[in-house]
Write a structure and sequence with these properties.
By secondary structure, the protein is an all-alpha fold. Helix content is about 70%, strand content about 0%. A two-stranded antiparallel sheet has the order 1-2. Helix 3 crosses helix 11.
Amino acid sequence: MSRKAAVVALTALAPISWGSTYFVTTEFLPPDRPLFTGLMRALPAGLLLLALTRKLPQGAWWGKAAVLGALNIGAFFPLLFLAAYRLPGGVAAVVGSVGPLFVVGLAALFLGDRPTAKSLIAAVAAAFGVSLVVLKAGAALDLVGVVAGLLSALSMSAGIVFTKRWGRPEGVGALALTGWQLTAGGLIILPVAFLVEGAPPALTGTNLAGYAYLAFGNTAISYFLWFRGIERLSASSATLLGPLSPITAAIIGWVALGQALGPVQLLGMVIAFGATLAGQMGPRTPKGVEKAEPFGSTEENGRKVSAGLEVSGVRR
């Protein structure tokens, strides 16, 4: 397997993991608590990574980390969970599938990446394919849920582009940068959650298990893989891994919830997956991949971080 293929495969674990978010939200978590759910997903994971890396931002990176934390976490999570609560998982996923189109436009504006016909076709095909997955689902659309889904996709798309634009500080690993963003995003959500939703709800064992999965497997590990992948892939290649999330959500809905998957839905999965593959067939290897340190270790705070943590697990 080439190095680029390995980077793509590891990065793909993140959207695959995020495809389970809708199922966990609706089946394991207390209802109507999108802000509290976003908080519980982000802040514990961020604090854990800060404790492991023991490295804080310096200088201008306090502001940059706050902006990235707001785009990737602080705004994205509440909007994502609001969409997940108000829309069926497949519908929420298809609304978010416009992300690649947002990334193409934002990358042209902020990175100087001129959109190519291939990237535009792949982005449109991905959105169309995911749309077919829920075309005959018979689910009613909720305007608030649809708007929240679109804004969450825009927020994360901007986060991808600015993550590419700013990179990370010299001597700081992706694990530390992930911790900065998760902590900043969680702290942004914290006061809003208490002002809007009030005191935390009483939690059952099932709720705690759901939050533990979202915080550590679905967030701490998956976002580390995601941010590391963004460094090594083009913005369009990274975002075109996104359709793996709704495909996973649809498969989970079919297996675990008995949701129907007809020929049209299966065709949509094929189209979306094909667009994902097409999005990875650009230049052989971005510069960041060849010069990257081996995936098994990252120099952080003067010591090596165990590869076991980096790959032990893993909108979305």
